[in-house]
Amino acid sequence: MQRRTFIKQTTALSAIASVSAKASNSQNVAKFPVVISTWKNEKANTAAWESLQKTGRALDAVEAGARIPEADPNDTSVGYGGFPDRDGNVTLDACIMDEKGNAGSVTFLQHIMHPISVARAVMEKTPHVMLSGEGALQFALSQGFKKENLLTETAKKAWEEWKKTSKYEPKINIERHDTIGLLALGNQGEISGACTTSGLAFKMHGRVGDSPVIGAAVFCDDEVGGACATGLGEFVLKTLGSFLIVELMRNGKTPQQACEEAIMRIVKRYNYKEFQIGYLALNKKGEYGAYAIQPGFNYTLTTNGVTKVYESASYMK
Ligand code: SD4
């Protein structure tokens, strides 16, 4: 099929299929190639899917998908338009991992619209995994990325409003929640993952969450599959959720069981009623799972060119 015809058909199908459906708690299976992302991210999945039609590579797909909310001024928790920290700075975290175990990440990066592509450049063009702050910015500029103001008028107004009380109260599932984590199985069935965020709104200056940490927000192992996370990053960091999920799958759990077990580790030790964590997992057979602490977590799946948003099961009902 001609690529353009294919894309047209895919987009049309996506539009028809983009309705919320209840995923069952049993193990779901998708045929590869497949793209799965946190929250309602149909445009990102469509971009990832189109990328798969071009190169067939899961790594390209997850990067292409992540770039969509990064450039969207209406998305207040990723890239351009992201809500700032409590001092008014938009600071970004992102990471990416491929099927060979290569990984790249940026933390506390400012003024660059596409941190995911900088993370990929860290992975491919440096001997390091993680670059932070001013060093990450210098590296991005050396790679030809443009320095931009990412604080939109809307985000600035929200920050000014917040300053009237200055209470740091992450409202999980209530404030717009769009940090994107993506997993894809490419045309060869290989796994890659990515995550990108502006972090929690009005956080302390310098705060870095789980999103740039390999093993916390994203982990992939081509022998097993991958996992990604969203929510209050401090708890994903404390439990190294994505690495845990991949190891649980390695030891025989289905993606659904592994996500549930990783949530239970948090539930058992922390005051889980006060925050949200959502996990996605995808194994090499195309089986996928999703689980969250609280209701309200959803995810977007693209398989056979059809994109749908599903509600995740959750520990609290
Ligand atoms: C963070 N995990 O910075 C991110 C926030 C998030 O949807 O996922 N928001 O802690």
UniProtKB/TrEMBL annotation:
Keywords: Signal. Residues 1-23 form the signal peptide. CDD domains: Glycosylasparaginase. PANTHER family: L-ASPARAGINASE (PTHR10188), N(4)-(BETA-N-ACETYLGLUCOSAMINYL)-L-ASPARAGINASE (PTHR10188:SF6). It comes from Arcicella lustrica. This is N(4)-(Beta-N-acetylglucosaminyl)-L-asparaginase.
